[in-house]
Amino acid sequence: MAPSLMFCLGPLAGIIGKKYGNHFTAMLGSLLSAIGLASSCFVESIHILYLTHGIITGLGFSFMFNSTNSIINLAFDKRRTLATGIATSGIGFGTICLPLLGSYFLKIYGWRGTFLLLSGITSHGFCSGMIFRLHRRKLAVVKSDGKQKRDKSGSILIS
């Protein structure tokens, strides 16, 4: 359920990313995913597991995935396809490695410990979200009245 929600909730993640920024959306996604995975180790019913792992973790994954793709599209102009390809290859790498790691964790720690360890791994996305910043282009656009257009932080905007 979590992978399905990761892609289905893209519009919601886009709205939140546009309103609050991609770094906030990625940090929120990491926090939700870590909470969903950590709370999954305490469940006693499969129905609650659908909520914790399926919905909460899926929502968090959606926020992280979409904010990462947005930041790549905004940060790269010339080699956008290469940057997207490199970033997306990480998904394939994770798809290969995480089942192997998960089965190893299951043998040693059981399913509850595996959820806690995966929660810890997912929480590292919070730090990644903290460093998502766009460098504004340094080009100046002069309006017809001779003044430059600036945003609230004082950066020069491009029309």
Q: What is the fold's blueprint, element by element?
A:
Elements: H1 2-8, H2 10-20, H3 22-40, H4 46-75, H5 80-122, H6 125-130
Helix pairs in contact: 1-4, 2-3, 2-4, 3-4, 3-5, 4-5
Keywords: Membrane, Transmembrane, Transmembrane helix
GO molecular function, one term: transmembrane transporter activity
Organism: Pinctada imbricata
Task: Report on this structure.
By secondary structure, this protein is mainly α. It has one domain: Growth Hormone, Chain: A (Up-down Bundle), CATH 1.20.1250.20. The chain is 73% helix and 0% strand. The chain is built from six helices and no strands. The longest helix is centred in the middle third of the chain and has 43 residues. The C terminus is likely disordered. One of its GO terms (molecular function) is transmembrane transporter activity. Keywords: Membrane, Transmembrane, Transmembrane helix.
Query: What class do helices, strands and sheet pairing give?
Result: mainly alpha
The proportion of strand residues reads under 5%
Helix content: over 70%
The number of helical segments is 6
Distance between the termini: 42 Å
CATH class: Mainly Alpha
For this structure, what is the CATH homologous superfamily? Answer: MFS general substrate transporter like domains
Looking at the structure, the CATH topology is Growth Hormone, Chain: A
> What's the helix-strand series?
HHHHHH
Shape: globular
Instruction: Describe the largest sheet.
Output: none
| Uncertain parts | 137-142, 153-157
Oligomer: single chain
Please compute the radius of gyration using only Cα atoms: 19 Å
Q: Taking all residues together, what is the mean pLDDT?
A: 83
The total domain count is 1
Number of strands: 0
Examine the secondary-structure arrangement and name the CATH architecture.
Up-down Bundle
Keywords: Membrane, Transmembrane, Transmembrane helix
Subcellular location: Membrane
Protein name: Major facilitator superfamily (MFS) profile domain-containing protein
Membrane topology: Multi-pass membrane protein
